[in-house]
Design a protein that fits this description.
This protein is mainly α. 61% of the residues lie in helices and 0% in strands. Helix 3 runs antiparallel to helix 4 and helix 6 crosses helix 8. The radius of gyration is 20 Å and the shape is elongated.
């Protein structure tokens, strides 16, 4: 029905929205066909397609990842951020190399940086422990981002990172909300002497 009537409606995004809850190959085929025909300047329809692919319809990551890469490289910063937000909640293939710039760009909103971190976290070894420590230990960074870095780093911190975390804790500065996560990094797999 949707395929047959899509070209007749003024706002195809609204009709596509119904496919978000459909986990059928045919639904994904249709959404990806529409995405391929949608020009980059049609932000409304691209946004609607992103919302649809964030649902059950977009479960085949090998087929949806090219669309996410397209949005992550889009010239519109809000479209790029919408893609990062979606990728922080949906399954996807390896995209760390295109998500990393969102995490490392201090000009990006803290929410976007945290969502990029969450989106990368499912990939083995991503983000790198050194980067997580760099952000966690930087008192000028956003607290929520620092806490998210600490949550990811604590279970996999190397001995050198634990030593750095202990040194950081001993530096006399005001306590922050991220300090407990620095302590967890310092104490991960610690043994008494």
């Amino acid at each position: 029905f949707i395929r047959a009537h899509l070209s007749e409606v003024r706002r195809p995004g609204l009709m596509l929205r119904n496919l978000r809850i459909v986990a059928e190959k045919e639904a994904l085929d249709l959404v990806l066909e529409v995405a391929a025909r949608t020009p980059d300047d049609d932000l409304g329809l691209l946004g609607e397609i992103a919302r649809v692919l964030s649902g059950k319809c977009g479960s085949d990551v090998t087929r949806t990842d090219p669309f996410w890469r397209r949005l992550l490289a889009h010239r519109d910063p809000d479209m790029r951020r919408q893609a990062v937000t979606a990728l922080s909640t949906v399954a996807h293939g390896p995209l760390a190399e295109v998500l990393l710039p969102f995490l490392t760009d201090e000009q990006e909103p803290a929410k976007t940086r945290t969502e990029a971190l969450v989106a990368m976290a499912g990939e083995p070894g991503q983000p790198r422990s050194e980067l997580l420590w760099l952000i966690l230990s930087n008192r000028a960074e956003d607290e929520s981002l620092r806490i998210a870095c600490g949550e990811l780093l604590a279970p996999r911190a190397a001995p050198a990172t634990r030593a750095s975390a202990l040194t950081w804790l001993l530096t006399p500065l005001d306590a922050t909300d991220a300090a407990p996560w620095v302590a967890r990094v310092a104490g991960t797999a610690a043994r008494s002497a």
